[in-house]
Structure formats: C-alpha cells, structure tokens
Amino acid sequence: MYRFDNYINGIPADISASFQVFNPSTTEIAGHAPKADTTILEQAVAAAHAAFPVWSAIEDQQRQQYCQAIATKLEEHHQELATILTSEQGKPMQGTGSMFEVGGAIAWTQYTASLEMPVEVLQDDETGKVEMHRKPIGVIGSITPWNWPLMIAVWHIIPAIRSGNTVVCKPSPLTPLSTLRMIELMNEVLPAGVVNSITGGDELGAAMSAHEQIGKIVFTGSIETGKKVMSSSAETLKRLTLELGGNDAGIVLPDSDPTEIAPGLFWGAFLNNGQTCAALKRLYVHESIYSKVCTALAEFASTVTVGDGFHQDSELGPIQNRMQFNKVNQLVKDSVNQGGKLLTGGPVSDNNTLFFPVTLIATSNPNDPLVREEQFGPALPIIPYSDINDAIAAANDNPTGLGGSVWSTDINAAKNIAFRMECGSVWINKHGAIQPNAPFGGIKSSGIGVEFGKEGLLANTNIQVVFS
Ligand code: NAD
C-alpha cells in the first residue's frame, strides 16, 4: 500500500492526518495521502515564495538543464510511476494507459525544456531601443483533476518552473499518489522550495485561488469549479489559465469509409475510457452512411476488452470514481428513456462495480441529455444529419468549445468545415491528438488561455518592456 509525503521546501512535511485513496478496479485501498490543512498550505506557499528570488535569477539555460534532469529522473522511474497511476486511476498499464501517460509526461518535459525564451527587440534605431522581456510571475498554484493526473501536473509544473516561477501543486484527492511520488522525484533534482506538493480536500484549492502570495492559478478541471476559481481569484487579480470541460463534436462527411474510420472514431471517443477533456463526445454522421458507421463502431467496440488495469489484455479500465460512474449511468438511462437506441452497452444496475460497458447510442433527439451534457465516460451518442450546415450548427450549439473533428477523404473540404467550428482545436480524420508544440485550450466555457508550445510557456510570464 502506498503512502507518500507532501514535499515542502525540499523535505517531507510533518502531517499526521491522512485520507484513503482507492483502486477503482478492485475498490480496495490503494494507499494513503497526507491530509494537509490551510496551515500546511501557508508553509507550502511560504517555501515557494522564499525559493522564488534565487530560482528566478539563475541563468535560463540552467533552468533548462534542471527540466532535462527531471525528464531523466522520470524516465528512470517510468514503470514505478505507471504502476502507482494504475493503482489509483484504474487505467491499463499498457496501450494508451499509464505507461503511455508517463511517457507523455516525459516528452512534454523534454520539449518544454528545449524551448527558448529570447528577449524581443521591438525597435532599435536612432530614436531608441525598445526590448520586450518575459518575467516570471512568482508563485504559481497548480490544481489538477483525476483523469490524467501525472501528465496534467507536468503540463502545469514544467512550463511554470522553466520560465522562472516556483510552484505549489494540489492534485485531485481522488488520484494524489502518483503526483506526490513524481514531485518527490522532482525534489531529488531541484533546489528546495521550487516545487511543493499539498494534498487534502477541495478547500485547499479554494484557499489557493484566494491566496495573496500566489500570482497565478493554472487549473484543469470542471467548468463549475473553474468558475469558482475565477471568482475567488478576483480579489487578488490573479493571472489564470483555465482548462475546463468540453463536449467535442465530430462530423463525418458522406465520402468517409465507415470501416476505415471506425478505429479512429472509437479511440477518439473512448481514450482513457472517455475520461478525457478533448475526447469525441458527440458524433454527427451523414444519413447516407449513418447505419454503416453505427454498425462498424459497434463491431469495433465488441473487440475491446474492459478490465482491471493490471490485467494484460485490458484496453479500458473502470470509471475512476462513483460520482462519475453515477453521472454516466444516469445520462445513458435518460438518453434511452428519451428515445435513444442502444447499439451496444447500456446502463448498469450493479452498485458494487465501477466497470461500465462501452456504450453507443443512436439518437436523433437534439435535446438528448447525452448530447447536451459532457458525459466524461464510456458512452457516445451518434446523431444523423442530412445537411452539413445543420451539422455544423448543431456542433456549435453548445456552451463548450474545446475540440472538434471532421472526417472526410477530401482534406480541403474538411478544413473548410473545421474553420466554421467553434473550438480551440480541430482534427481532420482523428480526434484529441494533442502534442507539446501545438497550443491547446478551449474557447467559450471550455476555458481561458492555452497550454503547450511557446504560447503556453509564455503564459507563465508577465511582459516587461524596457525603453532605452
Ligand atoms: P473538478 O473540477 O471536480 O476538480 C478539479 C480540481 O479542483 C481537483 O483538484 C479539486 O480538488 C479541485 N477543486 C475542487 N473545488 C475547488 C474549488 N472550489 N476551488 C479550487 N479548486 C477546487 O474536476 P474533476 O472532476 O477532477 O475533472 C473532470 C473535469 O475536468 C471534466 O469536466 C473534464 O472535462 C475537465 N478536464 C479538462 C481538461 C482540459 O485540459 N480542458 C483536462 C482534464 C479534465
């Protein structure tokens, strides 16, 4: 059974209280995490604040080297971190599961370390010189969710420290263990206080959002909580990056080959059991190939094994927690009650399991709750359309705007539709394929700001213009 410490100022914090963390595959206890209170949070913020002057003043190249050293450290512990992750999150070790997630965390760390942050000369002539410098903000608070806990923590922490900030990171109380171990490993290579961890209840996130000495919050989680973060950070005029929920639409054009696109559609929707912010969550298919796409997807789904993340043949794990399971189950029930036709899977009546069958529902009802709301789980509604303008209008008729996709053999036609979709990323013939050099973020209720690439890195800085 795992038990890791909160790392504050480079050493384990003295916290006697703890809380249990469960393995969603077995519902047994996976480990314990320290239950920090706001007094401990003060210590973490003070440590980050004290470390900031030295960390922000060192040569930029040195910070690049520190980030590379973190990547090496994570590589050395790849298997160990993946095992902890599967124990608490449930995702399979193999495929696009825990080994993949730790691999992604390493790749993002390496890429972010390699980015340059040059001073930009805006003007240099007889009237004077104007330089634009990028200055770190100070202490950055990172608040992460339970779906991709390690990768998302890396997305927050590495750009923040790479650009000279120090960090207090609060993982989700549902999956704190892998992040705690990762931050412990980071502390083996970083100076004390540069990255600090804190675990406990949601109230810690609220206290971080309101904290005077935290200059920015990077938050990944639900829209509802994102609004609370924004509201409680108003008093201190904090900088914010909010990566929130989505309800991504995919549009399949009539020239697509149903059998060929079925695996891509499936994994676009069911990666991490659908518990992915930019997963395909609503699929609009032209009526001329609608039944063939439904059949091809159901056939592909029947080949996928759902099971314990530690079983070798598992491709999808359980839903991570009971609240999310109940939400997905209810949406599936509501959809069926409102005319949705089950193609495979369906609601579950067993209260003792968190395993949920891969569920595909054919529906023509635009008000189907499974279409309107983010399911964040293994259930996909498939909706027919006859006019592409109606499909685009339906895709955009949602408060969220994270990702979208268009499926066609005619790339130019697909791109023209992509431009009309209201979302931060659009993929052609795939869905959700993020990468470290491409800015990623949502529009509308899906968030504020971007992560990744140069733009994501610079979001951790303030601009200072020097006129000479
Ligand atoms: P959540 O909002 O419930 O929790 C996220 C984090 O916020 C947790 O660490 C939680 O402890 C903390 N928190 C709770 N109340 C808080 C408060 N008042 N102030 C500050 N922090 C608080 O989200 P979740 O259920 O863990 O994650 C699922 C959601 O996250 C989904 O909607 C999903 O789409 C979204 N998500 C978005 C992205 C993205 O990049 N856009 C990525 C992953 C997940």
Automatic annotation (TrEMBL):
Positions of the catalytic residues: 243
Keywords noted in UniProt: Oxidoreductase
Annotated Gene3D superfamilies: Aldehyde Dehydrogenase, Chain A, domain 1, Aldehyde Dehydrogenase, Chain A, domain 2
Ranges in coiled-coil conformation: none
PROSITE patterns reported in the protein's UniProt record: ALDEHYDE_DEHYDR_CYS (PS00070), ALDEHYDE_DEHYDR_GLU (PS00687)
Record has Oxidoreductase as a keyword: yes
CDD domains linked to this entry: ALDH_AldA-AAD23400
Domain spans labelled Aldehyde dehydrogenase: 17-466
Family membership noted in the UniProt record: Belongs to the aldehyde dehydrogenase family.
Official protein name in the record: Aldehyde dehydrogenase family protein
Organism name: Oceanobacter antarcticus
Highest classification ranks of the organism: Bacteria, Pseudomonadati, Pseudomonadota, Gammaproteobacteria, Oceanospirillales
